[in-house]
């Protein structure tokens, strides 16, 4: 049984847009040809790209769901296989014909020809033609089709938000070959990322989307930016949160220390008796933008050193004696 788009992404048909997006990102990390060791990584990546391109677009997803519910109304090739569009030839005129997108009724004679009244066609292939040759084949006027806009997402280091950068990226874009058949095309682009970009903002690359058909204009490519995150560093809007390790005595005594941050190396004053998990706000040290920079929040993480020598263990013993009234589990 041929795998459908939902199965390709490993989600249920009732999946939300966020669930589809999350599953796609997980599979993309697993099967991207640049990092995957799977033997069929490229084929898998192509399949999930095509599936995500359809299911992430509300209009395309609706058409695809209609195809799943009524596959015979979309022709033998299925959705997206031969370039057929439901809106072009969906009104069938009966068992021996159909109604075209131009409102004209076409009927087959017993020789397999279709009769549109004034114009004769040499068969089924003449009516639909190759997508790249325009509907109706060479005997009808070819129609130009503008290529669809494409969307991609790239993940970059957080430092790029502060400095800007030019990143070289490789993308797999759904397009059409010379015969008008859909195929996955790989392209490498240099993308200039300006400083101050927030997550989910997009960079528009004019004419870098899906190629037009029969001389039609190319679509645009929209690149969505996300920043690399982990348990110690993450972004919320224009605000940045970063964990800073400090020693117990630095937390208690309130010393000044220098730390590395996404905004560069800075000196901070730790308040006396600082608590583990306490946040220090550095105003306007978040992601810069035209409306004003966000803030940088340093999350204090008190790290207890190991006692590897007798002297260090004696120091801990003296510490215990000095704080013998302290009850951490009280």
From TrEMBL:
Q: Name one GO cellular component term.
A: cytoplasm
- SUPFAM superfamilies reported for this sequence: Chaperone J-domain, HSP40/DnaJ peptide-binding domain
Q: Which residues form a coiled coil?
A: none
Q: Which UniProt keywords apply?
A: Chaperone, Cytoplasm, DNA-binding
Q: What residues does the J domain cover? A: 4-68
Q: Does the keyword Chaperone apply?
A: yes
Q: Name one GO biological process term.
A: protein refolding
The molecular function GO annotations come to: DNA binding; unfolded protein binding
Q: Which Gene3D superfamilies match?
A: DnaJ domain, Urease metallochaperone UreE, N-terminal domain
Task: List the InterPro entries hit by this protein, alphabetically.
Answer: DnaJ_C, DnaJ_domain, HSP40/DnaJ_pept-bd, J_dom_sf
UniProt-listed SMART domains? DnaJ (SM00271)
- Protein's name according to its UniProt entry: DnaJ domain-containing protein
Q: Which organism is it from?
A: Acinetobacter sedimenti
């Amino acid at each position: 049984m041929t795998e459908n788009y939902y199965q390709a992404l490993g989600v249920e048909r009732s999946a939300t847009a966020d669930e589809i997006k999350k599953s796609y990102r997980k599979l993309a990390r697993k099967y991207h040809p640049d990092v995957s060791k799977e033997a069929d990584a490229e084929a898998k990546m192509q399949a999930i790209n095509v599936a995500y391109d359809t299911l992430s677009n509300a209009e395309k997803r609706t058409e695809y769901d209609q195809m799943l519910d009524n596959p015979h109304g979309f022709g033998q090739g299925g959705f997206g296989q031969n370039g057929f569009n439901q809106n072009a030839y969906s009104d069938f005129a009966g068992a021996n014909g159909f109604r075209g997108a131009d409102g004209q009724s076409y009927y087959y004679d017993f020789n397999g020809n279709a009769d549109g009244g004034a114009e004769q066609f040499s068969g089924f292939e003449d009516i639909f033609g190759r997508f790249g040759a325009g509907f109706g084949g060479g005997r009808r006027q070819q129609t130009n089709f503008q290529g669809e806009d494409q969307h991609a997402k790239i993940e970059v280091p957080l430092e790029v938000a502060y400095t800007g950068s030019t990143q070289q990226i490789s993308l797999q874009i759904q397009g059409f070959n010379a015969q008008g058949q859909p195929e996955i095309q790989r392209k490498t682009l240099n993308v200039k990322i300006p400083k101050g970009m927030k997550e989910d903002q997009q960079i528009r690359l004019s004419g870098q989307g899906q190629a037009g058909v029969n001389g039609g204009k190319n679509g645009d490519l929209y690149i969505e930016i996300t920043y690399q995150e982990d348990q110690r560093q993450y972004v919320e809007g224009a605000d940045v949160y970063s964990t800073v390790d400090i020693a117990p005595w630095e937390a208690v005594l309130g010393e000044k220390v220098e730390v590395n941050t996404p905004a560069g190396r800075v000196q901070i004053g730790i308040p006396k008796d600082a608590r583990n998990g306490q946040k220090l706000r550095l105003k306007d040290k978040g992601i810069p933008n035209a409306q004003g920079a966000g803030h940088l929040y340093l999350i204090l993480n008190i790290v207890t050193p190991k006692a590897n020598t007798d002297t260090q263990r004696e120091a801990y013993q003296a510490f215990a004696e000095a704080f013998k009234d302290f009850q951490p589990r009280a």
